[in-house]
Amino acid sequence: MTSRPAPVIPAPEARPLRADARRNRERILKAARAVFADQGIDAQIDDVARRAKVGVGTVYRHFPTKELLLDAIVREHFDVIAGMARGALDHEDGWTGFAELIWSAAERNAADRSLCEVMSARDKSDVVEECGLAAMTADLMERAKAQGTMRADAGPADVPVMMIGVSAVMQTLPGEAHWRRYVELMLDGLRAS
Fold first, then answer.
1. Three-class secondary structure of residue 35 per DSSP
2. Of the candidates 159, 128, 122, which has an alpha carbon nearest to the alpha carbon of residue 141?
3. What's the Cα-to-Cα distance from 34 to each of 28, 60, 82, 135, 153, rounded to whole Å?
4. Residues 131 and 44 reside in one and the same domain
5. pLDDT higher than threshold 60 for residue 14
6. Domain that includes residue 131, residue range
7. Region label for 77, one of left (φ > 0), alpha (ψ between -120 and 50) or beta (otherwise)
8. Judgement on whether residues 95 and 164 belong to the same structural domain of the protein
9. Which of 38, 64, 90 lies at the terminal end of a domain, its last residue?
10. Least confident stretch, 25-29, 109-113, 177-181, 186-190
11. Alpha-carbon distance 2 to 64, whole Å?
């Protein structure tokens, strides 16, 4: 007796969310942003649900794990930074655009404890690629190098290392002065002499 191949069952098409489900999802994300920003990645789903004024089951229906909820927030974060990178590309001066992007990203991380923790502990290069941030950062760096304002040996791989470092400084050394000094030193290290 020969075995037949299993039938191929097409994946269900993603249906748009109902209006109430869409509202709940947005409330959950808004609450999660605030809770994770304040408490870090160890925040509890119960706190997110309470702040969103929904049941814990509703949170889990939209985000089956805390990791998926945190990932959604991180993706939003990188989408915002990608928007900043698009704006930075408008600068004629590549160095100014690049430096403003780094400062804006660092300030955004400083305002959110969970983002610092994620940035210093988890590889999010896939998200950085998907949102276009990696390519735009590389473009800014190439423009600055062509204009002679950035070191010729600087490359896009330097940026995540710098941002991981600044996130670690934010977590370990309290106070804005420490991480701002770190960003200044990082940028000075990339500037052409």
1. helix
2. 159
3. 10, 18, 21, 29, 39
4. no
5. no
6. 66-190
7. alpha
8. yes
9. 64
10. 109-113
11. 40
